[in-house]
Design goal:
The protein is mainly α and 189 residues long. It has six helices and no strands. Helix 5 packs antiparallel against helix 6. About 11% of the residues have low confidence.
C-alpha cells in the first residue's frame, strides 16, 4: 500500500516538475514562429490524466470518442481535438519516462492524428475566422514538434523513425493551418 502511494506521489511530483520546466518562460529565448528555430515555444500542454496501459484507459477512449461525435459546433470540435492532441503529446513524454516505448509510439501517432482531424474542421467554421485561433493552433503545433524532438534522444534508435514520422506529420498539419489562414486573408504571425 505504501509502495503504491509512493509511486503515485513520485509520479505526481515528476509531472509537476515536467510541466514546470516546459512552462518556464524566459526572455533569453527569441520569439519566433519558425519551426526550425530552437527557441522554446510558450504553450502549455494539458495534463493527460490516465495514461495508455491503465486498466480504465479504454473507457476513457470510449468517452472521448462519444464526446467528439456529440460535438456539432466546429469551433468546439477544434478545441476538443486540440485538447486531445495536447494530452496525447504529454502522455507520450510520460510513457517514455516510464520506458514504455511501444505505447509511446502509438500514443504519439494517435495524438497527431487528432490534430489532423482538427485541420479537417477548419473548413466547417462559419464566416471570417478570428486570427487568434490560428495563432493558438500554430503555437500548439510548434510545441508538439518541440516536445517530440526532445524525446528523440530518449528513445532507442529503432523507435526514432516513428517519432520522426510524427514530427513530419505535425509539420504537415502546421502547413495546412498556415495555408488555411492564408486562404482567409488573415495576417500571418
Amino acid at each position: 500500500m505504501i509502495n503504491k502511494m509512493q509511486k503515485i506521489f513520485f509520479s505526481f511530483l515528476w509531472v509537476i516538475v515536467f510541466l514546470t520546466l516546459f512552462s518556464i518562460q524566459s526572455d533569453a529565448y527569441a520569439k519566433s514562429s519558425d519551426a526550425t528555430t530552437s527557441a522554446i515555444v510558450k504553450y502549455d500542454l494539458a495534463y493527460p490524466g490516465m495514461l495508455p496501459g491503465s486498466i480504465l484507459y479504454k473507457l476513457k477512449v470510449l468517452r472521448d470518442k462519444i464526446s467528439a461525435s456529440l460535438i456539432s459546433d466546429p469551433q468546439k470540435k477544434i478545441e476538443f481535438y486540440l485538447l486531445q492532441t495536447d494530452k496525447g503529446i504529454l502522455a507520450t513524454a510520460m510513457l517514455i519516462d516510464k520506458k514504455k516505448f511501444e505505447l509511446a509510439k502509438e500514443t504519439a501517432l494517435k495524438s497527431e492524428n487528432n490534430f489532423t482531424l482538427l485541420t479537417y474542421q477548419l473548413g466547417n467554421l462559419p464566416g471570417k475566422i478570428n486570427n487568434s485561433l490560428f495563432t493558438k493552433l500554430k503555437k500548439a503545433s510548434l510545441k508538439h514538434q518541440e516536445v517530440l524532438k526532445s524525446l528523440l534522444s530518449r528513445v532507442p534508435q529503432k523507435d526514432r523513425k516513428t517519432f520522426q514520422t510524427v514530427i513530419d506529420f505535425s509539420k504537415r498539419n502546421l502547413k495546412t493551418v498556415e495555408d488555411f489562414q492564408k486562404s482567409q486573408d488573415l495576417p500571418q504571425k
